[in-house]
Structure formats: structure tokens, C-alpha cells
Amino acid sequence: MSQCAAIIAAAGSGERFGATLPKALITLGNRTLIEHAVAALAPIASEIVICAPAGYEKQIQELVGADITVVTGGTTRSDSVRAGIAALTGKNKYVLVHDAARALASTQLAKNVLAALEKGEVAIIPGLELIDTVKSVDAGGHVTSTPDRASLRRVQTPQGFDLEILKKAHSSGANATDDGALVEAIGHKVLIINGEDRALKITTPADLATALSTLGDSSEFRTGVGVDAHAFEEGRELWLAGLHWPNEVGVAGHSDGDVAAHAICDALFAAGQLGDLGSNFGTDKPEYAGASGVTLLKETMQKISSAGYSISNVTVQIIGNRPKLTSRRSEAIATLSAALGGANVSVLATTTDGMGLTGEGRGIAAIASALLIKQG
Ligand code: CTP
Ligand code: MG
Asked: Site Transition state stabilizer: which residues (predicted)?
């Protein structure tokens, strides 16, 4: 592990966001802002202290787990950081100070900050160039000067410091909107390295939408296609799309022959690169002999979940002259979706105009597609 500690300032109330919860507990994608911030720093920090809003310490501790120290934050951000410094073990030479509100700052950004500390810099802050021209104004709103835009940076967190220097900078009890300013005020050099758009500070609900699109970019999407076909066999019951179809001729097969369910399983296995129906439930796995389509869907769902995927959506198109699906489409969607943990499912049907595949009326086929998401 590195010689690096981290303090995450999360004690703000999120007034501008306007929610009933503190901002750190707002959900973005699959977890809260504070959990995102912890996930980004955990790979490089050997200790993490979170400054929590008063009254929410326990809730945050339960979210982040017992390895992380949670303390009560202060009235201002700088007070919160001071509470965080006081709770550090002091064993680490370096410290990163981060805002929970910059929930999507990447681990790579934190690594870049740490790398500059390890090279001997004592204060590093990520920053971005300005897009707009900036003006200084007086109390009456008249411009007093136009700073050269090229020399300006808008700064972000995590900011990295030599711990002793950060302690000294905070010892005066002064307030500043970032820790870099306090270190600068006691005469140390502060280096700016390249920041990143995704480290934006989530301040309003609109920022949450921007952050969500970033999250989409960092997720891994995987698609897969699956096909299955079975021939009719007199005397068998028909199972299709998870439903029993009385008065219809069934199909041959060592299972219930549900081509729609089987095609979906294959599409899911394909997307997750987890083999196929045969390799997962084939004849060498006698426990699956005669298993229903719904059972196989549930097992498949478990396998893709264990591999870290969730389903964005699944579609299946049934190809055959009969049965007529229309009147039972919603029932089929509900059954398949329930087997897949509530995933979005579409069910379509078509014939092939008397040609090819099942057009001769000798069986039923299905083609399915699946889109899986793996969180980055
Ligand atoms: N923060 C803190 N202690 C405070 C105030 C702010 O730890 N007394 C933290 C916030 O939780 C946030 C970061 O400092 O992660 C940056 O502050 P900001 O984005 O302004 O968040 P809030 O203060 O919560 O929002 P607002 O100003 O809209 O109330
Ligand atoms: Mg604030």
C-alpha cells in the first residue's frame, strides 16, 4: 500500500442541490456520491477518513464499511477538513483531500496527484483551463480588470499534500474554498496538474445528469445474440416464452423445448462471454435434464450476475406459424422478466411467409438479443 491517507469532505448540506438528504447521500447510478468517492480513492489510500454531516455518521459508516473512519464534519468545509486531519493516524506521509461532491473523479486522477507528491512536490491540485473569459469587478459591477485567461485554471479535488504541510496550513483555523489556497498562504509552492471533466462538482440536479452521462461512458456494454429451434413432436406439451400452451403441439427436446427461453439464455451467455446453453446446461450436467425454460433463465441470470453484469434489456422474436402469440404477449413478458430478476424484456413474433426456417410449419424457432452492463 502507498504512504497515502485520504480525507473526504462530505459534511455539506447540499443547499443548492435542494434535496431533503445531504448531498453525499444522493444516489448517482448504482450508489451514493460518498460511495463513488470512496471507490475512487480506496485503491491508493491506506486509510480514509470521511467528514460526515452531523446526524448521518452512522448511516455513512454502514454504507462504506468498518475499514473507513467516519467523523463529524464542521460548520465550514475547512472546519470539516480539520476534523478529518485530527482523525488521521499520522502514519502516512501524504494526504489527499477530496470532495464527496466530486464523486466521479477517477482513481487515475488520484494516482497522478500521488505520483507528483512522490516526486517531491508538496502540494498538487488538479485544474482545467477556462472556456469563458473572466472579469474582475468592483462592488458596483464595473470591470476592474481582465485577467489573461491562459494563465487561469479552475481547480478540482482530490488535492494532494505533504501531511505536515497541510497540518500547518490548517493550524491557523482559516477558511478557504480549497486546501491549496491555505497551503499557498503559508508560502509553499502549489503545482497544478491536468484535471478531468468527470471530476465536476455536483452542485445542482442538472450536474447529476451530466455526471450520469459520464457514468454511462465508464460502463462496459456487451451485446449478445442467441438462436434456438425445435421440431414439433405429436404428444408433447408446448412450453414457449415461459408459458404453457394447452391444445398446441409441443416440440422435441431433452428439456421442455422452450425456444424463446433458450435463445435468451444463449444471448445472455454470448454477451457475458460465458459459454453457451450447451456448455452451461448440456447433457454432461444431468441435474438440468428436463429443466424448464424459466429454471434455465433463472440459473443464467445468476451466472451473469456473479460475473458482474446486469441486464439493460433483452428482446426475443419467436418465428413460427403457431401458436399465435398476440393475446398472451404481456403474460409472456411478465414471466420472462420475473425469471430475469425484473429485467426489461420485449417479446415479438413473426412468420416467414411459408419459406425457410419454420415456414414449412415443422417447428418453432426464436432469435434473442441481450444488452448487458458491467460497471467500470
Ligand atoms: N463540505 C463539508 N463540510 C462543510 C461544507 C461542505 O465537508 N461544512 C463538503 C461537501 O460535503 C462537499 C464539499 O465540501 O463534498 C464541497 O462543498 P459543496 O459542493 O459546496 O457542497 P455543499 O456545501 O453540501 O453544497 P451547498 O454549498 O450547495 O450547500
Ligand atoms: Mg457549500
From this structure: 16, 23, 254, 351
Between CA 103 and CA 138 the distance in angstroms is 34
- Give Cα separations from 138 to 141, 143, 154, 160 (angstroms): 5, 6, 21, 33
Other beta carbons within 10 angstroms of residue 50's beta carbon come to 29
User: Whose C-alpha lies nearest to ligand 1, atom 8?
Assistant: 76
351 is in an annotated binding site: yes
pLDDT at residue number 313: 92
Q: What is the pLDDT of residue 284?
A: 84
What averages of pLDDT result for each successive group of 10 residues across the chain (376 residues)? 92 90 87 95 97 97 97 98 98 98 97 98 98 96 97 97 98 96 98 97 89 75 95 94 95 90 98 95 85 95 89 94 93 95 92 82 95 78
> Could you tell me the CA-to-CA distances from 198 to 52, 63, 311 in Å, in that order?
23, 23, 25
Q: How far apart, in whole angstroms, are the C-alpha atoms of residue 98 and residue 105? A: 9
Grid cell in block for residue 9: 469532505
- Decide: pTM greater than 0.70: no
How many angstroms separate the alpha carbon of residue 83 from the centre of ligand 1? Answer: 14
- How big is the CA angle at 153 (ends 152 and 159), to the nearest 5 degrees? 145
Nearest ligand 1 atom, CA 10? 11
Largest CA distance in the chain: 91
